[in-house]
Amino acid sequence: MIRNILKSVYQNLLPLKVKNSIDLFGQLRRENFDRPELAQKENLLDKNILVLAPHPDDDVIGCGGVLAIYQKKGAKITIVYMTDGRNGNPGYDENALVFKRREEAKKAAAVIGIDRLIFLDNRDSELSASPKTVKELRDILHEVKPEAVFLPFLLDNHRDHMATNDILMGSSLTYKAPLTCYGYEIWTPITSPNFFVNITDQIEVKRQAIEQHYSQTELCHIADCTLGLCRYRSALYNLKGGYVEAFFRCNLDEYKRLWQAIQ
Length: 263
Fold this sequence. Notes:
This protein is α/β, with parallel strands linked by helices. Helix content is about 45%, strand content about 15%. It has helices spanning about 1-10, 15-20, 60-70, 95-110, 130-145, 160-170, 205-210, 215, 220-235, 250-260, and strands at about 40, 50-55, 75-85, 115-120, 150, 180-185, 195-200, 245-250. An eight-stranded mixed beta sheet has the order 1-7-8-6-5-2-3-4, sandwiched between helices. β2, α3 (about 60-70) and β3 (about 75-85) form a beta-alpha-beta unit. Mean pLDDT is about 90; it is low at about 5-10.
């Protein structure tokens, strides 16, 4: 009885602004099917982009098509590789694999046309929001001053991917400039993405960039799997033969509220 009364008050009496402050996941839940407008390259207006890749290859898998669009539009793009990727293939000596994956990341970025790469060299599978990693990213934020940051969505099911979100939250406490967060999908497809980008014209660039990561593609057909997800996303827009990358996009304050809710 009390629950029904409170529900009625919430639905009928509270102002929208108050509702939004109570309902942390309003953007993730839609009462009616509401298909977001499909973004084209003309919709990508950010000029200064920061990409957080927990491992070498996450950047091109999660948002390689969009990065290709930004690069052609003349945006400044900085990619930060949070770990060294030493555990990515048991068939290699760990130290040899660290070197190999760094070279693969350089080749993949070159396919897209990105030359600003930062390798933090934290150990793969051991990433955490330590004072060291938080300071590293804080320094990068204040030096790069990005308008947009791309990173694995905070529910992506990999410990280093979740830790990357933790590090961004800690490092951005003193960052006061407007910042749009784009959560991309790697291991866990986003349940309710709210931003879709048509990357049909960039799909071969994305494929070629992924295929530079041979130490990973020899274990799994990563390019086929990733492009299959992009093809699936395109079905929402009836794009025959098309490809779409999906994101959860919101400003930094909203992203922090979502992050805090799952702690």
